[in-house]
Structures are given as C-alpha cells and as structure tokens.
Design goal:
Largest sheet: 6 strands, mixed
Structural class: alpha/beta
Helix content: 40-55%
Order of helices and strands: EEHEHHEEHEEHHEHEHHHH
CATH superfamily of one domain: 2-enoyl-CoA Hydratase, Chain A, domain 1
CATH class of one domain: Alpha Beta
CATH topology of one domain: 2-enoyl-CoA Hydratase, Chain A, domain 1
Radius of gyration: 18 Å
Distance between the termini: 42 Å
Strand order of the largest sheet: 1-2-3-4-6-9
Number of helices: 11
Length: 261
C-alpha cells in the first residue's frame, strides 16, 4: 500500500488524516483501507482527542475511483460495499471522539457519505457537494440515502440526487449541511483551530453525546447501509449503470432514454 496516499499528523490532541491521492483523491481499496486504519488508530490512541479529515489539492474527493472496480468482469457492488465503505462509515460513527471534515473543494459520491458521517463540517467557499451516483446510473450508498435527508430534508435531498446538480457552499451552510463556511485561504487554519479547541474540551463526554445522538437519530444506520448494498447490487446490473459508466469513460453525456427494459 502506498504510504503517502493518506497523510497523518498528531499535534495538540488533533489527529489529522489528509487524503492525498492526486488528482481527485478518488478512493480505491488502498485509500479506503488506509482511512479505516487511521480511524482505528485514533480510537486506540488517547493522545488523539479529535480527528480532522482533510484533503490535498483542489478537490476534497471525487468519490469511488470507478476504474479501480474494473476486475475484468462484473463487479459485485454488495460485496464491495460490505468490505469497504459500510465498515468505514460505521467506524466513524462509533468512534467516540469528534470527527471534523475540512472540505476544500468538490466532494461527490461515496466521499460525500464519508463527509456526512463526520460529526462536524467546515467548508471553503469553493466547496461543492454532489450526490453523484445518478451520474453513472447508480443509487446512493455509503449512508448518503440516510444522512443527506437527515441534514437537509427529503425534498432537497431528492432534488440533489435526481438532478445530480451541485449543492453550493452557500446552500450547504444555509441548509445545515455544513456548520461553518470560510474563505478558501483560511480553511486549513480555521479547521485546525476548531479541532484544537474541541481537543481541549471534555472529549469523553463528547463521546457519550455522540453515542446518544447515534441512538436517537441514527439507530437504523447499519440496516440502511446493508439495504443500500442490496439495492446497489441490483442497480449495478441495470442498463442505466451500463450507459452511465460507458458515457463517463467515453467522456460524453449519457442517454438514459434508451435504457428502458
């Protein structure tokens, strides 16, 4: 596994995990495993009181690297999700320490699920939020189907998912998708300052608070993740996905009107 695809740093109680897979920080198995390992390390290390999730470059993450799923045959989306994003999302929510996402640019697909699984989000004015899955004829996974409507409401989430249009940074703040919005050149400093402030607080009590929030608001998370994997397995076999993926790889607009059974 390449050592530099996830940069780590521990200072003043803030354990930074920074995505570093140019040029779009798209997730492959190595990056997912590295992030899972980082969360596991944060859980074990008492010196890591707050996790700060960030990214290098102009994009936070384009989501799953679709080229990494090409094994020469049909991909089992269910098996993939059960191995990768589902346990990662559960890890993040079960980590009884605050997790802050510092969102520097566009975030899409499974990466949006990872951002939504964080406790708090601070974004650059250049951030954009794409559901993304519909762009290649798939359904939301990585808990996006649960977390996005919880945060911004069902109608807004449905529009974002169906139209595959970005949610701007300003809309994200207004709708409660992010907690704070700052100029791009202030993001790194503001995010670290916020994380350090939390790290000086009662982190154990915050962990219990997170546990109760999970119980009160997200008791169905594990079941939803499993159902998303089931639905994605079906969607992945469908003609919409075949057309969407072909169009993506061929860099053209998909024509879904010709995909009806």
């Amino acid at each position: 596994m390449p050592e530099d695809i996830l940069l780590t740093d521990l200072k003043d109680g803030v354990f930074s995990l920074t995505l570093n897979r140019p040029k779009a920080n798209a997730f492959n198995d190595d990056l997912i495993e590295a992030l899972k390992g980082g969360i596991k390390q944060a859980a074990k290390d008492p010196a890591a009181r707050v996790v700060l999730l960030a990214a290098t470059g102009k994009l936070f993450s384009a989501g799953q690297d679709v080229s990494a799923l090409d094994d020469g045959g049909r991909v089992s989306f269910r098996k993939h999700l059960l191995k990768t994003y589902n346990p990662l999302i559960l890890q993040m929510r079960k980590l009884e320490k605050p997790v802050i996402a510092a969102i520097n640019g566009a975030v899409a697909g499974a990466a949006l699920g990872i951002v939504l699984a964080c406790d708090l989000r601070i974004a650059s004015e250049k951030a954009r939020f794409f559901v993304g899955f519909g762009g290649i004829g798939l359904a939301p996974d990585s808990a996006v189907s649960l977390m996005l409507p919880k945060l911004i409401g069902l109608g807004r989430a449905a529009e974002a998912a169906y139209a595959n249009q970005p949610i701007s940074a300003e809309q994200a703040l207004e709708w409660g998708l992010v907690n704070r919005l700052v100029p791009a050149d202030e993001l790194a400093g503001a995010a670290r300052e916020w994380a350090a402030e939390l790290a000086r607080g009662p982190v154990h009590a915050m962990g219990f608070t997170k546990r109760t929030f999970n119980k009160a608001i997200l008791p169905e998370l594990e079941a939803v993740l499993d159902y998303e994997a089931h639905v994605q397995e079906i969607a992945g076999r469908g003609r919409d996905h075949q057309e969407g993926l072909a169009a993506f790889l061929e860099k053209r607009d998909p024509d879904y009107t010709k995909t009806e059974d």
